[in-house]
């Protein structure tokens, strides 16, 4: 409104001050035939100036040029120059512009361009700085525009995307995006649209490559056709997003596409909500000059960039011209191309434009924000709006400013179209992917009479977790298994993910749930819910095995040598005692102590007694007879001392042996593992644990990783279950680094396993979903709720229970000796018994023979007699007299 008042005031003052006749300003305009909007906007702008200005009347000379005929175009420019034009407006595209640009510069006629022109700087440089630049391009400077697209892409966090472009100029527009793409980033698919109108094969190719984000660089008029074909090949589904680089994308009516599910983002130079645009659009609509019987519908929201720019160009020109004309006389001469003439006014206009920012025009505007040019005539400062299309309308979600080209300021959070449609629907059905692993997810065992269908074919912690989450969210889910069975690992060579993460990236699932660790790498490409379990990397090792002790293991505490020396010493000492006792007078005793004068003395130390004495000593039992002589006592004392030491040593060593048996090779921590070479260790391949070691820069873990890589056979296992199997089979020579949760489960089931040391890190399992997934908040909320209700704990208890839970808590020190430990002693005892019985039998038979000889009996008689004595347990005394002999003889008669 202000501008209108200012404009009217200006005209009135002018009317009074300059009471001369209106001066006519000739201007030239060059258009291609195919852009009616720009021409209509130009005619409207001219009409507007003429309507309000009593001082100046603009006389436009509008010419049409062919797209390719440079010669004809040159002639047209010369013809216009001959008419005495003050400025040239157009053309509306780059075709044949160069000739216009050159002639205008040579004749020093200012030219106002409104198209994307990356070659302007080159042209201006070629003409040198001695000539002030006479070309002004109102279209945003290409380099800055490219920067804006790169910033938009970065802020939208697009990682894996496809670029579809129409012509090679598009690559210049996208150059900053290419520059920002690092070698570590995921590969980008770049495709050029072919000739013709059928782009379906190309779009199908993109669809097959599982890319969901697409940058489309093409002419505004082709966008709708391409999007329509994309929709046909199902490239406009709910997970697809588009960035359109055309600054006119906002003006397309997508109604033809019907219920667009994909997100479409673009940028625009025009803010249709400004008063200026609204007023101009209204006047424009009302006073639309008829152009070849065409009527262009001009709503503020659908004004095209070039149309607004040509209006701004004329506004700028007339404002500057008027201002200059107030202080100096502006003469516009007719010029001929053939003669070496130049204009009088050109450089003055150009100098004036060059020094200021055009904020307010003579007419309402500028419509495209403040206008400012650099030395090359490029418009380097401008603002862009970021607009997002929702099924209902366009929403401005942020702005970009050329003063801070690396930033975007978001005014609203981008809402995926899918969210809007989901919010309106009440049925939610998650597509969930998982993988089989005990106890997280297993196939349910079929029970007779019950047919399992749907999600019920599975059971396990994850199944229960999903049931709980979906119950809270009042939703349903469809569970299926990941194709390759992996959790999700990034292959830097192929530059792609596998496993569950891949399925999420390919949008084959809404959620991925299993023992899926939240890692930094994964977090960059997918989103995770709140963790539902906390864990750390730990070491699984087998408990030391108790090797079944050998039968004669009681001999182990002393070496064979010592046993042999001991046996020899036993024999030797027994004999020495025998000899010494014979010499020692103290051991010659009176057999009848009452007889003070004995005729004979008796020595009890026969060999038998000597052996008995030494045996009693070494067995810690003592003996019923003891030596009396000094020397014999000395020998015996020394033998006792020897026996004391030997027995104590034996006992002590026996205890040590029993403990040792339980130990075997042991480790207490990761440091222990790293500093030894006997026990090999490994991890599950392609999992978070492997990545932990691979990416760690802690020297201990780096060393362990290096060791694992060079070990042969490979210490890596395909799955945790195989790692556990290997630990159990390796007799303590292999340890498996795995996550504490799974470790706990395995340890509860296999009592020969144990966890060693502390956790190496702390992390959690989360539910993965696509980046910016609409489900993230609700799923996280449901997990949190389950945790608060104690449901997660209950589930853990339910699925982790195992038979060794208690045993593993018991201390290993409570080891009892089994029969196997003391078996040898029993064997010795039994052996001794049998030997004793055999000796007893031999003694018996020897005695039978003796009796037979002594009492003149036959061997049989003597045997029966002695046998009767032996088996008649009542008889305590053995008396051999006549009656027993007679009885034996009568037995003979029988
Ligand atoms: N939970 C791990 C992952 O998400 C797999 C097991 C492991 O690496 O120890 O990759």
Automatic annotation (TrEMBL):
Question: Transmembrane residues, as ranges?
Answer: 562-581, 638-658, 825-846
**What range(s) does the Ionotropic glutamate receptor L-glutamate and glycine-binding domain occupy?**
439-506
Q: Where is the signal peptide?
A: 1-21
Listed Pfam families = ANF_receptor, Lig_chan, Lig_chan-Glu_bd
Q: List where in the cell it is found.
A: Postsynaptic cell membrane
User: From which organism does this entry originate?
Assistant: Aquatica leii
Similarity remark? Belongs to the glutamate-gated ion channel (TC 1.A.10.1) family.
What GO cellular-component annotations does this UniProt entry give? ionotropic glutamate receptor complex; postsynaptic membrane
What keywords does the record list, in alphabetical order? Cell membrane, Disulfide bond, Glycoprotein, Ion channel, Ion transport, Ligand-gated ion channel, Membrane, Postsynaptic cell membrane, Receptor, Signal, Synapse, Transmembrane, Transmembrane helix, Transport
Q: Which InterPro entries match?
A: ANF_lig-bd_rcpt (IPR001828), Glu/Gly-bd (IPR019594), Iono_Glu_rcpt_met (IPR001508), Ionotropic_Glu_rcpt (IPR015683), Iontro_rcpt_C (IPR001320), Peripla_BP_I (IPR028082)
Marked site, Interaction with the cone snail toxin Con-ikot-ikot, at: 694, 785
Q: What is this protein identified as?
A: Glutamate receptor 1
* Site feature location: Crucial to convey clamshell closure to channel opening: 667
Sections of the chain in a coiled coil: none
Topological type in the membrane: Multi-pass membrane protein
Molecular function in Gene Ontology: glutamate-gated receptor activity
Q: Where is the Ionotropic glutamate receptor C-terminal domain?
A: 429-802
* Cystine pairs: 751-804
| PANTHER family attached to this UniProt entry | IONOTROPIC GLUTAMATE RECEPTOR (PTHR18966)
Give the SMART domains listed for this entry: Lig_chan-Glu_bd, PBPe
Binding sites annotated in the UniProt record for L-glutamate:
517, 522, 689, 739
